[in-house]
Amino acid sequence: MLQKHASQERLNVTAGEENSHILSVLTNQLPDRDPEETAEWIESLDSLIKEQGTERAQFIMRSLLQRAGAQSVGVPMVTTTDYVNTIPADQEPEFPGDEEIERKYRAWLRWNAAVMVHRAQKPSIGVGGHISTYAGAATLYEVGFNHFFRGKDHPSGGDQVYFQGHASPGMYARAFMEGRLSEEDLDGFRQEKSKEGHGLSSYPHPRLMPEFWEFPTVSMGIGPMNAIYQAQSNRYLENRGIKDTSDAQVWAFLGDGEMDEPESRGLLQLAANDKLDNLNFVINCNLQRLDGPVRGNGKIMQELEAFFRGAGWNVIKVVWGREWDSLLAKDDDGALVDIMNTTVDGDYQTYKAESGGFVREHFFGKSPQTKEMVADMTDEEIWNLKRGGHDYRKVYAAYKAAVEFKGKPTVILAHTVKGYGLGTHFEGRNATHQMKKLTLQDLKDFRDHLRIPITDEQLEADPYSPPYYHPGMDAPEIKYLMERRQALGGFLPERRHQHTELTLPGDKAYEVANRGSGKQLAATTMAFVRLLKDLMRDKEFGKRVVPIIPDEARTFGMDSFFPTAKIYNPKGQNYLSVDRDLVLAYKESPAGQIVHAGINEAGSVAAFTAAGTSYATHGEPLIPIYVFYSMFGFQRTGDGLWAAADQMTRGFVIGATAGRTTLTGEGLQHADGHSLILASTNPAVVSYDPAYGYEIGHIMRSGLERMYGKDGSLTEEQRNVMYYLTVYNEPILQPAAPEELDVNGIVKGIYLLAPAKIDGPRTQLLASGVAVPWALEAQQILAEEWGVSADVWSVTSWTELRRDGLAAEEEQFLNPAAQARTPFVTQQLAGATGPIVAVTDHMKAVPDQIRQFVPNEFATLGADGFGFSDTRAAARRFFKIDSHSIVVRALEMLARRGEIDWQAPTQAIEKYRLLDVNAGTTGNAGGDS
After folding, report:
1. Is the pTM of this model over 0.90?
2. What are the pLDDT digits (tens) for 663-677?
3. Which of 151, 549, 803, 810 is least enclosed, having the fewest CB within 10 Å?
4. Which residues of 220-239 are buried (b: 16+ CB within 10 A; e: fewer)?
5. Contact 353, 368 (CB under 8 A)
6. Distance between CA atoms of 401 and 779, rounded to whole angstroms?
């Protein structure tokens, strides 16, 4: 008895002290000077609800609040509501389906999903998997599949559904019921190579299952962010007249633990600002993350309600199942609601891991009124009081309200139990996320709970391989399931990649890039912007280009786009612009072409992903061109770019103001010397470090041809790439394209830019990007002052040269009897004698990528270490990458070979004062873009 009182006291103290901060606090800070009058007002409201229903009461309350505000009566914003369903029982719509049939095959789905994971744990396989997420979320998905999610054959064009990554077994189980997957396929779960042709990826990975999955989601926080920008992209397509997406809905299924990721909540304001009422978040609030409670001492549903409501979203809570309706109807004095409000999540989790008797004692036993309320109920009836996320009717009501709501995005907070129905070993346990196997008794109990027609003998025959269950395609339940999907426009998830054919720009679009800048200095960033402007002017192609920028358009010289292309804003521009009289005035429009995400690189990558996959999502290609400070790309948003690769995004990623010494005064946090290495780790990224505008033109033209050209020899996988180009802000004379230009060399990664002009001891200078002019200057100094003959090569892509070299090695490794293919870089440098000095404005690891494929003696100059603020000349002298450092390094290598005087390097160091940062002369000042 003492134990009971201690427990009761603990529960009450926890509720009172820990949860005061998440209640709405409307009255508890104000004195009640006339309790009798207060009671009369409350009684009046109760009578109104009883006689005219909750809908009328809502209108009266809102009218009173509005009037109170007009009379300057300080009423605080209600950020949280009571811990009950948002939609009252009397406002629930009629459920349109056959609940009994849907419940029956939902049980089969849950069985097959769990069995699939369990079978993958055979001692000889043991590849892992997750059972509990889908077990708890099955109802949330099935209501959608049967009544809301539209497939691509629907007149609307279909919905986009972001399935929660850990729930993937449930989607496979449904595809099995639909006849899209076989038992052999289910047994290939997480065995993609060893069961080639029948392997299933662990999570939603479109690149691994390109006909099935559409959106990757298991990198926590990326899914919510991408879903928001997908909804925006749908409206963008509509507002720009490319496709009617007005009836398409975006659904994102998320975990309550996942909402702690900054990315999960960080972009909510965009959805509210753009009034994305085509967007629905469904948050599976099982109150558990991977290791334990999300908010053991708090209430995550209340926290999320306040957060989303504050961000401008419509919030619908689905807390309790229908079994609670009669109890709440009897709760005249609010005792039950008070207990619901003050019970913390850690205790709710514990209740589902215990028993009906435990719930009677520790939950309903908190007050005499609630204890009496369940006196006539058995422990089993108390145990069967469902949470709202497991009740078909409650979930249906929420979804219907969500899709019908206008003017705001909607979040549905659905209260569930993790591991629901899997038995006492799984339900609500802290370890349930990591539990992958069921004992024989678990299997029997689960079978009984779901009423699966499988015998004990079948389970006992091989506990590691319990049978899947399918009643056959002619079973009435399966016919019903298939009819529902047909009515809704086909199967989901499904990815298609057929799209409208593009007419790519002709030679004219690239003329300016090939012409150079004449006598005018122009950075490669500006050369790129001029090319982009010409691509956007192309009549057929131009409207497909989606320039995406964070809040740096002027830095990149892209403010010139504002007056003509305009900035996309679904609300238009409803203010008088401060710079309206300027030529480059800031202009917003619903039909604007530029996606201007603000100070928001993560959102920009999400926008890039949505636009770059429109060819598959909507069958309408868009060409996203995301321009950003190179330091804040792969370093800051690498996970988003990896998800973009997984989703098979096509487009261009432009790392502007690149280089460790080129941005001069900005300093360390802006000094990128490593993005090319980070980019090289992503197999879908084709990265380049071009030196001149004409190189950029040929690279982009090649990229467009690869992604959307008519070359029938290219596979779908070869087309699904992103091009990363680094461009710089240092102004230089942009040369015209040479007449005998090696375009193939530019595209593949290296070409001879400037052959040596004299005979003498020979060396090869390999440079990329902004370092090419330094190499040209070094070539001149070596010839004029040291009699050394140097060839200068422009290396447009160290990474692509490396990939080609590795591929040649792999081919030889697997085909030792065949004649070995020579890597492209080796071919290009064949006959190029003498030592090689490779130089970039990036770290040494960038040029070092090709070292093993070059037979020559090889030295690398690079900007390793942190950047800093200084002049370009001083910074380059400090890192020993300037023209004089190139000269000295070449002389040292030639001296060691005995080809020049051994004292020459020392003389050169003294002559050029190589150890004095103030003696550097390489580079110039200026250059905003």
Report:
1. yes
2. 888 888 889 999 999
3. 810
4. bbbbbbbbbbbbbbbbbbbb
5. no
6. 71
